[in-house]
Design brief:
26% helix, four-stranded mixed β-sheet, 8 strands
Length: 126
């Protein structure tokens, strides 16, 4: 068993799509802007790896829960990269906002960023 799809609730699905593809490097799996439907996947295996649906925060209870998680600066997902240090510097050059700078501890090498659409993402060397 493996995870096929997960959802991240965002304040603006179109803007999220641009950030996740142009900045983070995910690729399109399914895009239907007229339905606010944006599903992205990892560049090395977009249909076989875990996909992310960038869901609108269109219901009050979803909006409230997502805002609570963000207010605590809790990451909604943990992303893996081969080299967190290189990715940290690449994203820094792109002007990404960091919630946690590059850290090495019992979790390994990691940092956290703001995805510009209401979420904190953790990025780890894996």
């Amino acid at each position: 068993m493996r995870v096929l799809l997960t959802a991240i609730h965002v304040t603006d699905p179109a803007r999220a799509h641009r950030f996740y593809t142009q900045v983070l490097g995910f690729v399109d799996v399914l895009v239907a802007p007229e339905h606010e439907l944006y599903v992205v996947g990892p560049p090395d295996d977009p249909t076989g790896g875990c996909q992310i649906s960038l869901e609108p925060r269109d219901r009050p209870e979803i909006r409230a829960a997502a805002e609570e998680v963000y207010s605590r600066k809790s990451a909604v997902v943990m992303l893996a990269v081969d080299d967190a240090e290189s990715e940290y510097h690449r994203l820094g050059r792109l002007g990404v906002t960091f919630h946690e700078h590059l850290t090495k501890d019992h979790l390994g090498l990691h940092f956290e960023i703001d995805d510009t659409v209401g979420n904190v993402l953790a990025i780890h060397t894996a």
